[in-house]
Amino acid sequence: MTTTDTRDTTREHPAWLPGESSRHLGGRRVYIDAHGPLVDTVRSEFTRAMAAHGGRFVDVITDAEIVVILVTEPMAPNPAHADVAAVREAAAAAEASPLTPEGYILARRDSVTAIVAATDHGALYGVLDLMRNGEPAPGVRREQPAHPIRMLDHWDNMTVHPVMGAVERGYAGDSIFFTDGEVRRDLDRVARYARLLAAVGINRVAINNVNVHRTEALLLTDKLPDVARVADVFRSWGIRLHLSVNFASPVLLGGLESADPLLPEVAEWWREATDRVYDAIPDFGGYVVKADSEGQPGPFSYGRSHAEGANPLAAALAPHDGIVHWRAFVYNHHQDWRDRSTDRAKAAFGHFVPLDGQFADNVVLQVKHGPIDFQTREPVSPVIGALTHTNVAVELQVTQEYTGQQKHVCYLGPAWSEILRFRFAGETDGARPVADLATGGFVAVSNVGTDHFLTGHPLAQANLYAFGRLSWEPLADPLRILDEWIGATFPDADDHARAVIHSILDSSWATYEKYTAPLGVGFMVSSRDHYGPDVDGYEYSRWGTYHFADRDGVGVDRTQATGTGFAGQYPSPWRERYESLAECPDDLLLFFHHVPYDHVLKSGSTVIQHIYDTHTEGVQDVLRSQAAWAGLSNRIDSATHERVTTLLVEQVRSAGDWRDQIQTYFFRKSGVADATGRPHY
């Protein structure tokens, strides 16, 4: 089943910036006292709004209703500002506590809104805040991002890969950047996409797949002028462009005999190549590298460590303020399923924690939020807490590879919030959440393509929005963010419609978890495309993703006492909590323990009955969502309603398939019938 819209793909659903203008800014008089490249973008946003809703630029501040000011420290005197209360209050707040480069202050007094920022980046974010949320309440509000790096990785291929397609793990059509082996000539959609990203605070984008094939490798050299065109588009919205590169590029592109990172000629090749990139793109962000992972080349081929592999690239980038995002997704993907001592979950810790402190200052280790692979439920990766002398970025997955592939409703904001709030030291005073440990910021795999709705499923736009907002404010309430997105995306919907959309999305992650792999065990999906149930799809494979179900029980023993020892990678109190069968949280029980089917959960249910009950409940939940959505047919636009209606039919079918296959499989394994008497199919 495809979700790609075959209608006009040069335009798209406007997502959370309504139409081509914002009614919030219409009919206003605007005064801009600012300078810098992004001020042109600020001015264009006001011009766009005024063209649709009226209003004008004015030259004297006393006649303005919206004032945008860039301040210096201390704020440069301007007599025109003195008589405007909102400006005085915002400026006083900025001087009392200096703003970060991307921060801004919104103040409203006497029908005047002032945006005060230290840089043109902050001014742009302030204006986009005004567009998203409308006029602020009277008073003063300070906004600035928690981290300077808020990045999306696109897994886009330049040509259609025979297995992975135009976008690896993409579920929304073709690449918005590439077609037929070239960068697209028409980048209008990219410009509209950049505007959406800037509106939620994203400031960096890597445009190509981390699995860098021959054609994509040329983006670093032959295709560089076209990459520069994309960078020009992003630059107007304060977004820096990054490239995924092949570790073996000195061989693949430079004709060297070796890519050994300690060879002087290899380091020199990277230096010269990087200098050429910055000649073409002065604000280039840096490289993303997947090395020694799933067949990609890396330093292990030369007997070198990952720090030795990353640092020469970092040295080439350092003079230009560039960054290496080095992915920590490194494991043995030729595992023998009979060997229960080898554990994929342990791999990243073993490879990278011993190197803590050996990476250059401009290397960011990009660590998946969980130790396996973006599963619906995993523990937080212990690597994030263990690296105390290395920059760490937490990597999330907005594209729904294992959470329904944008055919299922699955709002991931609550899942990400749990991760970002997790504290390795427990709930003790002073314990820092993951949000604070992410010194290298936040990165996520994008879910965008050429589909009319940008993300395939119209409601999957909420995940892209939520990642942007959480990367800006990591401890924000994900349900508040959800309501922001609903209000901005469905501005004409009434209160009832908004409440229905909220209820469908709010519970959707829990619903998806109910009808898929139970109690944190993970996978149980088709090994071909990761969609739909296949309980033993990976069980005897080389990928190290097992559930070890047998006639007596299910789950992976990762304890120190009798299992792989993975639980020991956590500090106290989690080491002891995960080790203990009695203390381990139910939702991660099968990730850490192999238990009998009659093991009693903290809920009072047995494992086998939990499997039967939750998989039935999950289907019922989807059916309720389907009925609730049907009731909105005359309350939201017909195109959106039609697309979601079609996709809910598929979700109901797939959820039923999951229920039937999981329940039947475990009935046959355990021999224990459903206590309620429900039939097995």
Give your account of this protein's structure.
The protein is built from 21 helices and 20 strands. With 681 residues, it is an alpha/beta fold. Strands 7-12-13-14-15-16-17-18 form an eight-stranded parallel barrel. Strand 16 (363-368), helix 11 and strand 17 (391-397) form a beta-alpha-beta unit. The radius of gyration is 26 Å and the shape is globular.
Shape: globular
In the CATH hierarchy, the third-tier topology of the largest domain is known as TIM Barrel
Strand count, sense and barrel status of the largest sheet are: 8 strands, parallel, barrel
CATH superfamily of the largest domain: Glycosidases
Radius of gyration: 26 Å
Low-confidence stretches: 1-10
Strand percentage lies at 5-15%
CATH class of the largest domain, anyone? Answer: Alpha Beta
Second-tier CATH architecture of the largest domain: Alpha-Beta Barrel
Structure in a nutshell:
Residues 1-14 have a biased composition (Basic and acidic residues). This protein is of the alpha/beta class and 681 residues long. It starts with 27 loop residues before the first strand and ends in an 11-residue tail after the last helix.
Break the fold down into its secondary structure elements and pairings.
Elements: E1 28-33, H1 37-53, E2 55-57, E3 66-70, H2 85-96, E4 104-109, E5 112-117, H3 120-133, E6 139-143, E7 150-153, E8 156-161, E9 165-167, E10 178-179, E11 182-183, H4 188-199, E12 204-206, H5 214-217, H6 224-235, E13 240-244, H7 249-252, H8 264-280, E14 286-289, H9 306-317, E15 323-327, H10 347-352, E16 363-368, H11 382-386, E17 391-397, H12 413-421, H13 434-437, E18 442-445, H14 461-472, H15 478-489, H16 495-506, H17 508-515, E19 553-554, H18 574-579, H19 589-592, E20 595-596, H20 607-630, H21 638-670
Parallel strand pairs: 1-2, 1-3, 3-5, 7-12, 7-18, 12-13, 13-14, 14-15, 15-16, 16-17, 17-18
Antiparallel strand pairs: 4-5, 4-6, 8-9, 10-11, 19-20
